[in-house]
Fold HTH-type transcriptional repressor AcnR.
Amino acid sequence: MGDLTPRTGDTPPKQDRSRATRRRLLEAAVACLAERGWSGSTVSVVAEAAGVSRGAAQHHFRTREELFLAAVEYVAEERSQALRALGGRSRAEVVEALVALYTGPLFRAALHLWVAASDEPQLRPRVTELEARVGREAHRMAVELLGADEAEPGVRETVQGLLDMARGLGLATLLTDDAARRQRVVAQWSRLLDEALG
Amino acid sequence: MGDLTPRTGDTPPKQDRSRATRRRLLEAAVACLAERGWSGSTVSVVAEAAGVSRGAAQHHFRTREELFLAAVEYVAEERSQALRALGGRSRAEVVEALVALYTGPLFRAALHLWVAASDEPQLRPRVTELEARVGREAHRMAVELLGADEAEPGVRETVQGLLDMARGLGLATLLTDDAARRQRVVAQWSRLLDEALG
């Protein structure tokens, strides 16, 4: 505010600050959703956690829906980039990393958003569209990292079932930390998957 | 009220009526949870849907928590009995029936209860305990119906992974009806399971 002089420097610090604020808001929004659920997640709560004024938060995201949809999408993209770095790892390591995608705070946040969307008509189509996009990207990455040949009959469904299993394992961690059980299931299905994919 | 004369007839109609009212409340509670989620599910809404007065509903269930926990447990038991009738079917049919357990209104209702419990400290321990009990029963039934020998290494984890996949498929149906995709995944994983169990 008030600074209307055109900048001539080689870095635009105002734009950098704005981007950093946006990122802080998105990260705080995912953490908030994962910890407090949809009913406890408001723009005010997120702004406070991010150390940003409510006005600044609303400058970035006009509505609560916009903030949380953008947050889930942002973190999903971050995770997708992390997955890409796994190229060349063994299948067992890839399966472990895929399952980890569904058992962390991102999945927990996304789960709260899905469940809220299932009852809220104005949120539902946007969350459905986001979920389909994130799901397709996860599938594409899984096929690539596992070296699966989708031209072979059954391979596409084998990989889809693996991602469904990962989602189910994520759901099981919602109430109790069952990491030990999960590890044994993942090890066994990695072996079965390895045989199935040849 | 007022009827204090001891009954001498061979059927106790009052007790029968009470049991029928209880059952109607439990069924309405599951439907309500599946359709409106936790925040839209109150004793009043359920009582109205069941055609029971609020006072009568509170005579059966003192608190909202009691009503919905009992409802999820009741329907889980009904489903479990339906599963028992599947003895002697092929593995593919059993897998299909197991997956159906996780894609109907019961799972949808349970999912809303789990997600609500994950943020509500007074609900969480009871839902966690109920979920563990229902999960153990589903596992026990799956082992029996699939003719799986848990003494063999890996078999226990193979069956657990199958139930996790079913749970993940259930989650995928929350926002979109993906029955066609699900059918293909289930057919393929039935084949993998059949090979794994021998």
Notes: Chain A touches chain B through 47 residues (CB under 8 Å). DSSP finds nine helices and no strands in chain A. The two ends of chain A are 62 Å apart (CA to CA).
